[in-house]
């Protein structure tokens, strides 16, 4: 597994956007490289409706970033 500190700020920002707004995959096509990278980090997945969802690991990464513990 890749450590959370290897996620870029853009990827973390995307995770926050997914978490906050529940954006669907169509709205994120322009950022697909980041979506793929997040999936490789086990931070996001697609639900049954095709929406991107933050995983527990993704929530932990955001929490670590917010608290500065990375």
* Order of the strands making up the biggest sheet: 1-2
Query: What is the H-and-E element order?
Result: HHEEH
Q: Average pLDDT value? A: 74
Strand percent estimate: 5-15%
C-alpha geometry: globular
Structural class label: mainly alpha
Name the helicity range: 40-55%
Main sheet?
Answer: 2 strands, antiparallel
Strands, total number: 2
Q: How many helical stretches?
A: 3
Unreliable stretches (pLDDT < 50, length at least 5) are none
State the domain count: 1
CATH architecture field: Orthogonal Bundle
CATH topology: Arc Repressor Mutant, subunit A
Strand and helix layout:
Blueprint lengths: L8 H13 L10 H9 L3 E3 L5 E3 L1 H12 L3
Antiparallel strand pairs: 1-2
Helix pairs in contact: 1-2, 1-3
Would you kindly provide a brief summary of this structure?
This protein has 70 residues and is mainly alpha-helical. The chain has helices spanning 9-21, 32-40, 56-67, and strands at residues 44-46, 52-54. It contains three helices and two strands; from the N terminus they run ααββα.
Overall description:
With 70 residues, the protein is mainly α. It has a single domain (4-67), classed as Arc Repressor Mutant, subunit A, CATH 1.10.10.10. 49% of the residues lie in helices and 9% in strands. Strands 1-2 form a two-stranded antiparallel sheet. The chain is globular.
């Amino acid at each position: 597994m890749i450590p959370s500190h290897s996620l870029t700020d853009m990827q973390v920002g995307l995770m926050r956007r997914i978490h906050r707004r529940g954006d669907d995959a169509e709205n994120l096509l322009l950022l697909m490289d980041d979506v793929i990278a997040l999936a490789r980090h086990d931070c996001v997945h697609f639900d049954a409706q095709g929406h991107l969802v933050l995983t527990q690991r993704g929530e932990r990464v955001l929490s670590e970033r917010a608290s500065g513990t990375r």
